[in-house]
Write a structure and sequence with these properties.
single chain; mainly alpha; 2 helices; elongated
């Protein structure tokens, strides 16, 4: 499957967004004192990283 230029740009934008979200969630978790919230933030950061990796697999197919 070939992606056109617009699709590639959108994919890169989504990948960057997921990376930004993961970094922000990690920073929030590092500054939080409630263990339950820390765990939730870390889980969400990992989910964002997993989504980023899934999106990157589309780039690797190009």
């Amino acid at each position: 499957m070939q992606l056109n230029e617009l699709e590639l740009q959108n994919l890169r934008h989504l990948i960057g967004g997921h990376e930004t979200v993961a970094k922000k969630l990690d920073a929030y978790a590092a500054n939080c004192n409630d263990p339950q919230i820390v765990q939730m933030l870390q889980n969400d950061a990992q989910a964002a990283r997993n989504s980023k990796q899934q999106l990157m697999s589309f780039l690797n197919q190009q």
